[in-house]
Design brief:
The chain has 5 helices and 2 strands; from the N terminus they run αααββαα. The chain is mainly α. The protein has a two-stranded antiparallel sheet. A hairpin with a 3-residue loop joins strand 1 (about 65) and strand 2. It is elongated and about 55 Å long.
Length: about 130
């Protein structure tokens, strides 16, 4: 897990989003242990309270479970739950802005589909 922090959001939230990304990407699987609070704090020079806060939010959302004396583990069904909530958030928050930008730039469906092909780029205005 590589870390580069930005000033736009609290570090605990950025850490939480990185762990969520690892879950969605399959780097963490159900039953896998998360790195310990102490390990993350030491590796990235963070206050352990910051790491604990990120992990606690994951617990509160039932994406991670605490196992007393053992650590934090990804729960069964966490990835499916994340996919559902992230898809909903994307469609509600990000997609409308993307559609507006596509319209503003005068791109059409053919250009967008062509740009998704390897080695291709959308060029020109709307046809």
């Amino acid at each position: 897990m590589t870390m580069g922090w930005n000033d736009n959001a609290p570090i605990y939230r950025q850490l939480k989003e990185r762990v969520i990304g690892m879950m969605l990407d399959g780097l963490l699987k159900p039953g896998d242990a998360l790195p310990s609070v102490r390990q993350i704090a030491a590796d990235f020079q963070l206050n352990p309270i910051t790491v604990s806060r990120a992990y606690q939010e994951l617990v509160d959302e039932t994406l991670v479970e605490k196992r007393r004396g053992l650590g934090m583990y990804m729960t069964d069904g966490a990835r499916d739950k994340l996919l559902a909530t992230e898809r909903e958030r994307f469609l509600r928050e990000e997609w409308p802005a993307m559609i507006e930008r596509i319209r503003r730039l005068g791109l059409d469906l053919q250009q967008l589909l062509q740009a998704t092909q390897p080695g291709q780029a959308a060029t020109g205005g709307a046809a």
